[in-house]
Amino acid sequence: MTNRTIRIWTLVHKWTSLICTLFMLLLCLTGLPLIFHDEIEALTAEDDLPVPPAETPLKTLDEAVASALATYPGERPLFLSFDEDRPVVNVTTGPNARPPVSQMHISAIDLRTTRILGDLNEDGGFMHVMLRLHVDMFAGLPGELFLGFMGFLLFVATVSGVVLYAPFMRKLSFGTVRAGRSTRLKWLDLHNMLGIVTLMWVVVVGLTGVINTLSVPLVAYWRANELAAMIAPYEGKPVPERFASVDAAVRTAMEAAPGMRPQFIAFPGVRFSSNHHYAVWLKGATPATNRILTPALIDAETGAFTDMRSMPWYMLALRLSQPLHFGDYGGLPMKVLWAALDVLTIVILGSGLYLWVARRRVAKDPATAAPGLRTVAGEPAE
Amino acid sequence: MKPRTSLPLAAVFGIPAGIGLVTVAGLVTALLDDGLVDAVSWVALSVPVLVAARSWWKRQR
């Protein structure tokens, strides 16, 4: 690499890093408790499932929805989702089909009694603040997209960092940390070593984070294209006055897709369904396929099956980006490793910032200032 | 440090490429199945963390 190319990559690395570093520090710090949100929320959980009378038959989904609506009169059902390992459904209701999240109510309902176990509503607690800071900094969609762009800058900073790793390491063996000479050299070596070691984790978590920020536009695109094609005969029809049975819709969907189980149901008019249909989102039965969702559309007026199509690639990417970003798909040991890698990333960000400040101090002193990599690397580039 | 002869690119990126491959394998395997496969992923994702710890332990003082 010539000095000129090195200087260009140095500029790219410096500016992309400088712009995104403070936001990345915010994301790493707020992300740390979010990794363990299940464990933290279990500590304060109030919806302990009462011990069931043996072999209690389950009530219907329609009864569960009625129970949620009785708690929030005047609202309409938006979503119904199933708990993984207990007979509990979560019913989301709201004042209209597309209310802001703050106006939605989520009730966890025991399917054996249709008693409401507790609400999962936003409570403004610590975890909620962490989540909002992490997702959109309380700025809604613009905040979300802004953080997505910062994530993209992190990716560019990471790539340029890898390019610059080569000239730095030309005369050093892998993993060298020269801690005995100057503070700056020690942090430089640490920055390089940690950067290259955590590289693929940072790239995967960074890019899947970026994809997650595109969730709203991607779902809107899916609704306008894929979904519109599925429900073409229904175009322009209003949301039905009364909805047919949810239980019947789920049965119809499961008959159309043997071996699949419902993950959640989107009621007519919401973001994940058409105006006229229940969208029953089905998942595969094996660990490898249960992340891949297939929506079956059921006419919400007649209960008739309309259409079913597998998700397009961008929806699949969005779906897979969730576990790969959250680190919640491999038990507690994986979460601990996620946290460790997150902390290492904080060290990379902090040391990068320190190196920039330290280098500026050096550059101001003409006696030690020198062009190119010399002042950064502590030894000459090629 | 007296400049030695420069390492070829393959030598500079050999170990990092290995760590990268192991990391990606660890991230993907846990998606495919539960149980034993999760343990494979824990071992794989420990690699970058342990390499970082080892480099710090062996730092030149």
From TrEMBL, chain A:
Q: Any keyword Membrane?
A: yes
Name-wise, this protein is PepSY domain-containing protein
- What are the UniProt keywords, alphabetically? Membrane, Transmembrane, Transmembrane helix
Asked if the record carries the keyword Membrane, the reply is yes
Give the superkingdom in one word: Bacteria
Q: Report the transmembrane regions from the record.
A: 12-36, 145-169, 190-211, 336-357
From TrEMBL, chain B:
Q: Which domain of life is it from?
A: Bacteria
Listed transmembrane segments:
7-27, 39-57
Asked whether the UniProt record includes Transmembrane among its keywords, one would answer yes
- Tell me which UniProt keywords the record has, alphabetically: Membrane, Transmembrane, Transmembrane helix
Q: What is this protein called?
A: Uncharacterized protein
